[in-house]
Structures are given as structure tokens and as C-alpha cells.
Design brief:
alpha/beta, Metallo-beta-lactamase, Chain A, 2 domains, seven-stranded mixed sheet, 11 helices, about 25% helix, globular
Length: about 300
């Protein structure tokens, strides 16, 4: 069962050659969620073989341009080429609806589907969305404007039925759902078969936390504790911590300290400032404090199963 993250862009502020602003696609059991939508997001999706038609849920962390300026174009492109009876849901801090609807109105862009905006309270941790496979929670972050992170938690799956047991114990199909949910089975001759003999445990639920942009914020540790994948911004190196504090960003070292405190399986760092010549400088700094750190790289896929 798929649980993987594709980074479309993970650099801060100014785009450039091979440097794309924030946008990610999370694929959970073939359900695809877009997280942030900087410039050129839809082009990066085409380059990475990700279909617009698969995305109906969009999560925006905050309204700075490098996280949202690609959204109006993405929405209007969908309207040009697709019919969306179910519409699109967008989750974000306050203000995004006004921004997008103003762009659509002034450009006389008329959508062929319903656009639904859901305002996220950036001061609290709460469930903001769920479907058949995932729950999504807000993560209160601290930046220059209202900002939220997102925690995606896969729902627990039922146990796996052993096919041979169905025939061996003559199990009616009506009983299979209960057995998958943990029930034992009583045979025709009143022999109780324990559930453990009839099923295999499911894959443990996986999780992903997205934390960009924010200062070092250890009070969110209980929220992101033990996640499989943590994406945490690392705009600056720690030698420039004064600048990080001034702009309300984090350093690579601070991202690694968050990963250590939260006992995550893998840390992905990104949102790199263009002031540095090489992203490897961030990796070297973070790995000193959290060895299982990897660089955020445009076009790279990160699988949660790699770190179990």
C-alpha cells in the first residue's frame, strides 16, 4: 500500500534554475493530496507524471507567495481541461479565499466546478479533514504571518484474512468482515478458532508531518511524536541563527533537534535560502544532530516504508 511523498519544490522565496518554491504531493493508498502550491507547481507536476485530475484536496500552510502563488494558475488549468462534479477543497489559514477569488474575478476566470475553502485556526491542534484512508490535523506553527503545519495519519486497516482458512473452516462470507476486525470464529462443531489463526496483522499506520515555515517550536513535539516522515524547514545554517530568529525561520540544526526530540524515523529538510552555495551544507549540519536526515530535493520521492 502506497505511502510516499514527492517534493516538487523546496527552496525558499526566490525561484531559480533547479530551485523551485514549496510544493509537495503526498500519495496515501492512491489518494493524492497537494501541500502548498508555489510558482510552477503545475509544471512540476507534469514533469513528474502527477495528474491534476487526481487532486481534490489542497493544504496551504500560509499565504507567503513562495507557498501559494501557483494556486490560481493550478485551479484555472483544471477548469479549462476537466469537469469536477465533486469540486475542490482547500484548507488554509484565513485570507486565502479572498486572495484567490479576487484573482479569478479580476482575470474573468470562470470555474467549471465548486471551490470550497476551509479556514484553519493556526493557534490550535485539531482534526481538519478525514476520508477513508487518512486523518489530517493542524500543527500550530510560528512565523511572520498565520501559519499551520499538517499532520497526515493513516487510518488503521483491518487485519488480513488468510484465504486458506475460509475454505478450511467453512467461513461464511458474512463473517469475514467481523473476523478482519478482530473477531474469533465458531465452527459448525462449536470449535472456537482464535483470530490470530485466521488473520495476519495489517501494515502499521504510517504518518507524515509538514512543518514549514516556523521558528524552532518544541511545544509541538507531542503532535509530531514518532512520525515516519517529518519535513521541517531549515532555511538557514546555525551560524546565521540571528537571521533565522529575525525572519522567524529555523536552522538545519534546529530541524534536527526537533526530529531528535520527536523520535521521528526520518527527517527531510528543505526551504533552503539561496544565500548558500550548496544544499549539502544543510545536510552536514543536520546529520551531526540527527543522522537519519535526508535532503529535500525537487523531483525526489520519499517512501515511508523505507524507514520502518
Amino acid at each position: 500500500m502506497r505511502f510516499d511523498l514527492t517534493i516538487l519544490g523546496c527552496h525558499s522565496a526566490s525561484p531559480g534554475k533547479d530551485r523551485f518554491p514549496s510544493a509537495q504531493v503526498l500519495n496515501i493508498q492512491k489518494n493524492i493530496y497537494l501541500i502548498d502550491c508555489g510558482e510552477a507547481t503545475q509544471i512540476r507536476m507534469l514533469e513528474n507524471g502527477i495528474k491534476r485530475s487526481k487532486i481534490s484536496k489542497i493544504f496551504i500552510s500560509h499565504l507567503h507567495g513562495d507557498h501559494v502563488f501557483g494556486l490560481a494558475g493550478f485551479i484555472t488549468s483544471i477548469s479549462l481541461f476537466e469537469q469536477r462534479p465533486a469540486g475542490i477543497d482547500i484548507f488554509s489559514p484565513p485570507g486565502l479565499e479572498e486572495m484567490i477569488r479576487t484573482q479569478l474575478r479580476l482575470s474573468e476566470s470562470f470555474l467549471s466546478f465548486e471551490l470550497r475553502f476551509h479556514v484553519v485556526d493556526t493557534d490550535i491542534h485539531q482534526l481538519i479533514f478525514e476520508d477513508n484512508c487518512v486523518e489530517v490535523f493542524s500543527i500550530p506553527l510560528k512565523h511572520r504571518i498565520s501559519t499551520t503545519g499538517f499532520l497526515f495519519k493513516e487510518k488503521k486497516k483491518p487485519r488480513k484474512m488468510l484465504a486458506d482458512c475460509i475454505e478450511q473452516y467453512e467461513i461464511p462470507y458474512q463473517k469475514i468482515k467481523d473476523i478482519k476486525n478482530g473477531a474469533d470464529f465458531l465452527t459448525k462443531d462449536n470449535k472456537l478458532i482464535p483470530n490470530a489463526e485466521l488473520t495476519l496483522p495489517p501494515i502499521p499506520p504510517r504518518s507524515f508531518a509538514y512543518c514549514s515555515d516556523t521558528v524552532f517550536k518544541p511545544d509541538i513535539i507531542p503532535i509530531i511524536q514518532n512520525v515516519d516522515l517529518l519535513y521541517h524547514e531549515s532555511t538557514f545554517l546555525h551560524e546565521d541563527k540571528e537571521l533565522a530568529d529575525k525572519t522567524m525561520h529555523s536552522t538545519a540544526r534546529e530541524a534536527a533537534e526537533m526530529a531528535t526530540l520527536a523520535n521521528v524515523k526520518c527527517l527531510i529538510i528543505g526551504h533552503f535560502s539561496v544565500r548558500y552555495k550548496s544544499s549539502n551544507l544543510f545536510l552536514e549540519e543536520a546529520q551531526k544532530h540527527f543522522p537519519n536526515t535526508v535532503l529535500g530535493e525537487s523531483g525526489r520521492i520519499y517512501k515511508a516504508t523505507n524507514y520502518n
